[in-house]
Every structure is written in structure tokens, then in C-alpha cells.
Amino acid sequence: MGKNDILFERAQKTIPGGVNSPVRAFRQVGGTPRFVAKAKGPYFWDAEGTRYIDLIMSWGPMIAGHANPEVVEAVKQAAETSFSYGAPTEGEIELAERICQLVPSIEQVRMVSSGTEATMSALRLARGHTGRDLIIKFEGCYHGHADSLLVKAGSGLLTFADSTQNAPSSGGVPQDLVKHTLVLPYNDVQALKEVFVKQGDQVAAVIIEPFAGNMNLIKPSKEFLSTLRQLTSEHGSVLIYDEVMTGFRVALGGAQSLQVITPDLTCLGKVMGGGMPMAAFGGKKEIMSKLAPLGNVYQAGTLSGNPVAVAAGLKTLEIISREGFFDCLTGQTEKLMSGFKLAADEAGVPFAVDSVGGMFGFYFANEVPTSFEAVTKTDIEAFKKFFHLMLDQGVYLAPSAYEAGFTSITHDNGVLEEIITAAKTAFKKL
Ligand code: PMP
């Protein structure tokens, strides 16, 4: 038994399933999760001293590479002056100003500690602002684990649960609550129009992953997005862009800058904290001013705007704002995916790829899927084999066919070459 197995056995005694977040368990692919000892740049080393090229990067945040020296220094300096005050700091103003500057639809922003808090709070705010209860989400989108949003959700829920049932995707969520959540198919313009004709004036908010990254990577059509923006505006419903994953990851201004859509509220997380527990939600001042202490929508947090997390976030945003950062990241990610595609073609494996900025998807299918349904029809068995063939060669992919992948600025040509060489071997063995 290796050290990973020993740790996994030990972990399962005191931690349910041995992991502190379900997707870390290798439930879909089988095998033992790697217990990470340390990481640097595009690599991490497990408890057995084996080196892996990381293509998850903490599920998105580590865009500047693991243990980026500049971020580490900023965190060290912040930590010297205590970890938390529970009182305002100048750093959080700087971070708020920076976010508002980079994402112009955000006029005001409130910091929280996780993406879940951001989406949960944004929803409450939208309901408080409109005085309506009904929310719309899309099949296969994951917005964190707030009760109202755990319906037909992606990510771990899609990997482990029977999301095809018309019921809450998680146990413990009252049916009474879920009746206020309408779930529509992603990219289905007609379904969206029909709901708004019937119930548009009851809809408090529509929440969407503007590039869905929790059912592999699925891109929206232009028509779907413009219809969404138009209908929500017409009916006074709040359009919430959940950019926890895409924010500062697909482009400096997030998905909304690429799609030229102005949402009413935006949720951020992951990259904005550079790997520290940090997230935010923000948008129109008119809506944000309904939050306590100004308004009657309550939202709070002991560690919100945590100074060490703020330091990591500010430095990370500085790094990604440098000239050429996103061109380079986007180019490298495209190069990686075309390398995968070429290797699959050479081996005669039906395979498709897609990417946006530093986020990618690959599919054991003849073409890139555009819906939740299509994703669930990709060849999961082939994915599982591919995952382990890559892992055995030191490449760490997300352990589920229903997750997007992530690169960092440290995934240089040498690293890509190593991954693609591994992929060639893997496809041949499939
Ligand atoms: N929204 C999206 C789009 C996400 O991808 C995630 C997490 N993967 C969340 C919300 C929840 O964020 P957190 O895990 O920080 O609570």
C-alpha cells in the first residue's frame, strides 16, 4: 500500500468519504485520490513524492501558477500584521475598486468567503430587490450548494447523483423551497421564452454560468444570451452572471466582456482570491444598496474581506492585468486542446475539444456538446480510461467527465509538450 492509500484510509475514519469536497474523491473514475504535499508553478507533488502536471489548478484559482513568488510575498506581508480584524481595511477598498474597474457592470461589490456565499447572497438580494420568489437556473449549471440552487445542478451532483430526476439533486433540500426554482435546459431559447410569457412577472432572477464549466465546458449561443438579457430586462428580473469560475479566467473582464452582455449582478470567486477563501458579488448600485446596513437584505461574514485573502487577490489581479497575460494563457490553452485533438485523431478516437481563455473542455464524442443532455451522452467509460492513463504518466485531470479543466500562465511550451506526449500514448492505448 502506498502513502496515498494509507492517507485515504486514515482520512475516511474522520472525514466523510475522506475528502472535504466531494469532487476530490475519485468516485467516477475509481482509485485513490492523490494527497498533495506541495505544489509549484504547473506541478504538484503527492504524498509519495510523485510529480504531476496539474490541469485543475485548485478548480480554477491558481491562474498565476502554484506558489507564485509575488503572491506568496504579498500574503506573507499581510500575515505579519494579523490574519483578520473584523473591521474595514484600505486593502478591501483597493480590491473593490480594482474589481469595479475590470468589470464595469459592477458598480458596487460585497466580499464574501466562498462562491456559494456569493450566489446565495446574490439570490437573496435579487429576491429582496424585486419582492418576488421565483428563480430560474439552467440544467447542469452549478452555483454552489445553497438550498435553492441544488436543483439539477452540475459538478459533483452530476457526477454522483441521479440528476435526471425532477427532484432536488441533493437530499435535505425541502420540496417546498425547490418549488421556487425553475430549471430550464441550457441554450434552449424557446423554453426560456415560454416561461417568461407565462410567469415572467414572477421571476426574481435568472442565474447562469455564462460559460458553463460544471458539466464539462458548454458554451452558450449568442441568441440564447441576447434573449436572456432582453427577457429579464423586459420583465424586471435580475440577471445574475455567475462568474465564480469564468471571472478573471476566460478574459480580464470575464465572460461578460467577451459576450458583450451587461448583467445586473455578477458573482465572482476563485481567481479573485488567488487561492485564498475569497469571493464576491456585485452589480448595479441601485440593487446593491438594498444590502444591510443600507437596506433590509441581510448578509454578513466574520471573515469577509479577509486581509490575507485580499492581499492574495490584489496581487493575482495585478499579475493577470499585465500586458499579454490573457493572450498567452488563451494561446497556450488552445495549443493544449489542439494537441489533444490531433493525438486523438491519429489514434482514431472520436473526440472533440473546446476552450475559452484559460478554461478548457474535451469530450469523448464526435462533436462539442451544446447541452446538458448531450454531455451526459459522451463516452464516460473512455474518459475514465483516459483519466487513469494520463494520471499514470503524471498528468492530473479533473476526476470527472463533467468538469472543465484549467491552465495557468506557468503551463509553458515544455509543459504542454509533456502533456501532449502523454496524451498520444493514452489515446493509442484506449
Ligand atoms: N459558482 C460556480 C460557477 C462554481 O463553479 C462554483 C464552484 N466550483 C461555485 C459557484 C461555488 O463556489 P465555492 O466552491 O467557492 O463555494
TrEMBL record:
Superkingdom in the source lineage: Bacteria
InterPro entries reported in the protein's UniProt record: 4pyrrol_synth_GluAld_NH2Trfase, Aminotrans_3, Aminotrans_3_PPA_site, PyrdxlP-dep_Trfase, PyrdxlP-dep_Trfase_major, PyrdxlP-dep_Trfase_small
Matching SUPFAM superfamilies: PLP-dependent transferases (SSF53383)
GO biological process: protoporphyrinogen IX biosynthetic process
Subunit structure: Homodimer.
Enzyme class: isomerase
Cofactor(s) of this protein: pyridoxal 5'-phosphate
Pathway: Porphyrin-containing compound metabolism; protoporphyrin-IX biosynthesis; 5-aminolevulinate from L-glutamyl-tRNA(Glu): step 2/2
NCBIfam families per UniProt: hemL (TIGR00713), PRK00062.1 (NF000818)
Record-stated family: Belongs to the class-III pyridoxal-phosphate-dependent aminotransferase family. HemL subfamily.
Pfam families attached to this UniProt entry: Aminotran_3 (PF00202)
Reactions catalysed according to its record: (S)-4-amino-5-oxopentanoate = 5-aminolevulinate
Entry GO CC: cytoplasm
Residues annotated as signal peptide: none
Keyword Isomerase set for record: yes
Organism: Polynucleobacter duraquae
GO molecular function: glutamate-1-semialdehyde 2,1-aminomutase activity; pyridoxal phosphate binding; transaminase activity
Name this polypeptide is given: Glutamate-1-semialdehyde 2,1-aminomutase
Subcellular locations according to the entry: Cytoplasm
Keywords, in A-Z order: Cytoplasm, Isomerase, Porphyrin biosynthesis, Pyridoxal phosphate
N6-(pyridoxal phosphate)lysine PTM positions: 270
EC number(s) stated in the UniProt entry for this protein: 5.4.3.8
